[in-house]
Amino acid sequence: MDLSSDLLRGYTDSIILRRLRDGESYGYRINREISDISGGSFELKEATLYTAFRRLEAAGLICSRWGDEQSGARRRYYSLTEVGMEKLSEDMAAWKNTRSLIDRLFGEVEE
């Protein structure tokens, strides 16, 4: 695991909240979106994903419901709460500040 993966894992909750900002979803779809957006460079282990869901729900940042079985397997759907939206806004602002600080500390980076 490289530094980028370690860094991203520290933002697991924020990444999940961001995916839910676009609307209700379920675990497998969220993980596929994360993988697709990252070009396959980052995926969450199933245990990590569902532990994060439990933690976020216990904190009141997301809520869940069981879907019906008519469309296939019964899925648990997650959605962002108002408190979750506020937390996501805070996390995104903190990330922008962190990114700006890292950019300043690294200075010009040659590619």
How would you characterize the overall build of this protein?
It is globular and about 55 Å long. Strands 1-3-2 form a three-stranded antiparallel β-sheet. The protein is mostly helical and 111 residues long. The chain contains five helices and three strands. It has one domain: Arc Repressor Mutant, subunit A (Orthogonal Bundle), CATH 1.10.10.10.
Offer a concise description of the structure.
With 111 residues, the chain is mainly α.
Determine the CATH superfamily.
Winged helix-like DNA-binding domain superfamily/Winged helix DNA-binding domain
Radius of gyration of CA atoms, rounded to a whole number: 16 Å
Biggest sheet strand order reads 1-3-2
Mean pLDDT: 89
CA(first)-CA(last) distance: 21 Å
Largest sheet: 3 strands, antiparallel
What's the number of extended β-strand segments?
3
Return the CATH topology. Answer: Arc Repressor Mutant, subunit A
Q: Estimate the strand proportion.
A: 5-15%
CATH class: Mainly Alpha
Low-pLDDT sequence parts: none
Order of helices and strands: HHEHHEEH
Shape: globular
* Whole-number tally of structural domains: 1
What is the level-2 CATH architecture name?
Orthogonal Bundle
Helix content: 55-70%
The helix-and-strand class reads mainly alpha
Topology readout:
Layout: H1 3-9, H2 12-21, E1 25-26, H3 27-37, H4 46-58, E2 62-66, E3 76-80, H5 82-106
Key attributes of the depicted protein:
single chain; three-stranded antiparallel beta sheet; 59% helix; 111 residues; Arc Repressor Mutant, subunit A; mainly alpha; 5 helices
